[in-house]
Amino acid sequence: MSKHLSTSSLFYIVLSILLLPMTRSAYTQSTDKPILFVSIAPQKYFIEQIAKDTFNVQVMIPKGHNPAHYEPSIKQMQHLSKSTYYFRIGMPFESVWIDRLARQNPQLQVIDIPKGIHLLPLESHSKHNHSIHTTLDPHIWTDPLLVIAISKNILQHLTLLLPQHKAFFQQNFQSFKQRLLDLDQYLGTQLQPLKDTSFLVFHPSWGYFAKRYQLQQVAIELQGKSPTPRYLANIIQYATYHHIRVIFVQPQFNQSIAKNIARTIPAHIITIDPLAENYIDNMYTVADALLHALKK
Question: Is 130 among the domain residues?
Answer without folding.
Answer: no
